Amino acid sequence: MTDVTVATVPTEGTQDDLLLEHQLCFALTVASRSVVGAYKPVLDELGLTHPQYLVMLCLWESSPRSVRDISGALAQEPATISPLLRRLETAGLITRQRMEGNERALAVRLTQRGAALREQATAVPGTMMARLGLTREQAGQLHASMTELIAATKAAAGDAPRR
Amino acid sequence: MTDVTVATVPTEGTQDDLLLEHQLCFALTVASRSVVGAYKPVLDELGLTHPQYLVMLCLWESSPRSVRDISGALAQEPATISPLLRRLETAGLITRQRMEGNERALAVRLTQRGAALREQATAVPGTMMARLGLTREQAGQLHASMTELIAATKAAAGDAPRR
DNA sequence: CACTAATTATTAGTGCACTAACTATCTGAG
DNA sequence: CTCAGATAGTTAGTGCACTAATAATTAGTG
Fold first, then answer.
1. Stretch A32-50: mean pLDDT, rounded?
2. Could you say which residues 7-36 of protein chain B have a Cβ atom less than 7 A away from any atom in strand D?
3. Residue B12 has pLDDT above 60, yes or no
4. Which of A29, A74, A81 is nearest to A54 (CA)?
5. Is the pLDDT of residue B14 over 80?
6. Measured between beta carbons, which residues in chain A are less than 8 angstroms from residue B52?
7. Cα–Cα distance, B132 to A114 (Å, whole number)
């Protein structure tokens, strides 16, 4: 219906460049919101939001981790992670206590319930790929494209702001 | 450095499925945030946030539009658009008045300043592609992938929730 | 050793995004 | 013609995400 769009994108700049439907950034944000939205019914059963799910993935990989560490792994500001962790603590999935030997850092640790939730979560990736009708190859291809894009933005950040 | 990831994804499900770095949804959200972040310095000069930029693109295409119309074009809830429009009105870029003939609908209209801003904006797409080091072909390819993904999520939404 | 620097986390403030609840207007079936 | 239901926007409430400012601890240098 509306997929002539890409095929007709010309090689040089035109005044069509400002058409909403031609914007990669628009397609990307819609895709992101749509995919996250598709996770919702599945994650609801675990009682997690999508960002919370990502934090849990992080902790299932290794358990006592600092805020800075998690923040780095998720490419998110500590100020974003902080309240998120507070909610996960309230939900009884993690504990937060100062690290011994370095009282400024926080030791974020899975509770028994938090660790146990992993069992239910193992089904999530497969369920989602099936729901979206993606093969492992397609998913891998998209993953690679996104990784490249992320790298491109890092390069762009290094260029202009001139720090 | 860390790009062995995709090449080593096996064909069948393993316990590695829960590794953060293997999640497409993670790569997608990071890519989305990163790209939007890359727009920031450029859009700052126009005094727009990225979501506001998308609304303006919308209005530069056709000017008196209803909230519902804009909401549909941007794939966003009216409740999200509403306060966003209020800020654009405060910024003097648009006006909001009830439509004559249908007092429930709103006529969102560009002001002179709003229309004029388009001149500055014409440079944005080109600037961004250059900054990200993307060719038109690459951008087109990514755009097509995102469009497919979006379609996949729509299909998924139609399946399960069974309305 | 003292005092500045850097590191780590949190808080405040703004803006997006969504759901649910509400108001106002319009439409259409009886 | 009337009033139940649909339509269009807004508001309230929650949660993310970012920047800037703050507090607390640690490390390093003179």
1. 98
2. 29, 33
3. no
4. A74
5. no
6. none
7. 39
Per-residue confidence (pLDDT) for residue B157, from 0 to 100 = 85
User: Do A6 and B145 lie within an 8 Å CB cutoff?
Assistant: no
CA distance A22 to A116: 45
Nearest CA among A146, A156, A78, A27 for reference residue B40: A156
Q: What is the mean pLDDT of residues A54-82?
A: 97
- 3-class state of residue A22 by DSSP: helix
- Distance separating alpha carbons of residues B80 and A106, to the nearest angstrom: 35
Residues of A in contact with B145 (CB under 8 A): 142, 145
Q: How far apart are CA A89 and CA A110, in angstroms?
A: 9
Segment B71-74 long-range contacts (CB within 8 Å, at least 24 positions apart): B73/A20, B74/A20, B74/A26
Cβ B97 vs Cβ B64: under 8 Å: no
Q: At residue A46, does pLDDT exceed 50?
A: yes
Residue A135, φ and ψ in degrees, nearest 5:
-85, 165
pLDDT tens for B75-132 read 999 999 999 999 999 999 999 999 998 999 999 999 999 999 999 999 999 999 999 9
Q: What residue has its CA nearest to the C1' of D25?
A: A104
Query: Would you state the structure tokens that stand for residue B41, as one six-digit string?
Result: 């310095």
- How long is chain B? 163
